[in-house]
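User: My notes are a mess, but here's the protein and pyridoxal-5'-phosphate's SMILES. Can you give me a structure?
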Amino acid sequence: MAMNQQGRPTRPNENAATGGYADTISGSRGLDQAEPLIFERGRTDLTGVDFPELKGTKTRLGGLERKSDIGLPGLSEPEAMRHYVRLSRKNYAIDLGIYPLGSCTMKHNPRLNEKMARLPGFGDVHPLQPQSTVQGALELIGELAHWLMTLTNTPCVAMSPKAGAHGELCGMMAIRAALDARGETGRRRVLVPESAHGTNPATAVQCGFHCDEIPANADGRVDMEAFKAKLGPDVAGIMLTNPNTCGLFERDIREIADLIHEAGGYFYCDGANFNAIVGRVRPGDLGIDAMHINLHKTFSTPHGGGGPGSGPTVFSQALAPFAPVPYVVQKGETWHMVEHEAEARADGAEPFGRMVAFHGQMGMFTRALSYMMSHGSDGLRQVAEDSVLNANYVLARLKHVMTPAFEGTCMHEALFDDRFLKDTGVTTLDFAKAMIDEGYHPMTMYFPLVVHGAMLIEPTETESKSGLDRFCDVLEGLAEAAKSGDTARFASAPVHAPVKRLDETRAARNPVLVWQESEDQPQAAE
Ligand SMILES: *Cc1c(COP(=O)(O)O)cnc(C)c1O
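Assistant: No problem, the inputs look usable. Here's the predicted complex:
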């Protein structure tokens, strides 16, 4: 396999029966252009712009200016433009097709949100502007905070965390601060179900807790007997996702909340799956103490390669005093951002600190509020209902050819295991790669860990029935191909993708993140 100097395969499809890049003189395939790294396309000794030599000006940098070459590739504007557009055409996006990644809520990002986020009063503000000049932006943050508290029935929200995992950190730091304020420094054990997202235990450990795993029962929910047996005076709390990562509602959630509170601990709820219940269930009514909301999942702001995240975290009365600065308050007609801990303390709060330099992701706040207001309360309720309906449609259409991990209906995602692939020689990974050849982004694979060879499909409410039918037809066809012994289709998949199977272990163990100029560049760029 031809490699470029970074060790990446440049001609992955050379041997594929369909013909690969090697078949053409240019390396391109049809109108899918081959594209090397930008450093290989541009030359570091050239520049893309021609500025006249500066004459008669004196530097004011006091001798600190760079003397050596900057070492960036020189490309003209059209060349740079084409480089990135060509790369983008190798990518997959929610604007191209269904993105069935379970636990990620990859829904359509309405264009109205983009229009709102670009209004100059929101898009062009600077975080260091005097507060009197950004009253509208502060009001927007306050309004969004109000609706997040209303939808969750909680009295407080920290708007600044910049992702779900960051929100978890915010919530667990508040729990740690509340325990410390009670003088309970011995409570350091956090109960985490074994189906939890990896960020849950990672966050707990980051905050100085240690994790104790609760097993799942045969239904894919928390095993209540095992949970009760783990309660004790050193328990700081529980981190529970609801609906959980198996796509199932934790039916005993009220009892779990009561028992953890009786034991003196707090209830952190991972709210990443809020899409399944938004407008229908208020987590505050279920007894949670803290929960992050991924605006980029439930409230449709772009994520993954499409934009930054935002993870506002709501708090119960018990944790509200410990919420971080900054936060927005309304004083008469004026909106005010409380930025310093001293000011918050003067208000009677005990913030554990601050999580970000400024106030969070303004663009995401604007998009999320635009989404909420355009849906209204009935529309948001329908979001939850339709997302659950769509997942159950996928489950119902595929359960005769694939094997659902659990009996019964699901919430907003359909979970299959790999029993239907038993003795076919095809693995979950092969199955997912074959989906790429069919033009579909694979579902989440091998997560949650409690299910063997897991395939977690979250269609979201924004897919139409005909779109879901096409998707299910393909999965059905692939399942039948695997069972009928057509393994060649899977072993070499994906044959139609720009890059084939990557050595992911090597990439993780030995990441090459910095481009190094090398002598034999022309050869490497082939
Ligand atoms: C997405 C997700 C997270 C983390 O959210 P990020 O915004 O990606 O940091 C945590 N838990 C679950 C269950 C998730 O699906």
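The mean pLDDT is 92.
User: Great, I'll file this with my notes.
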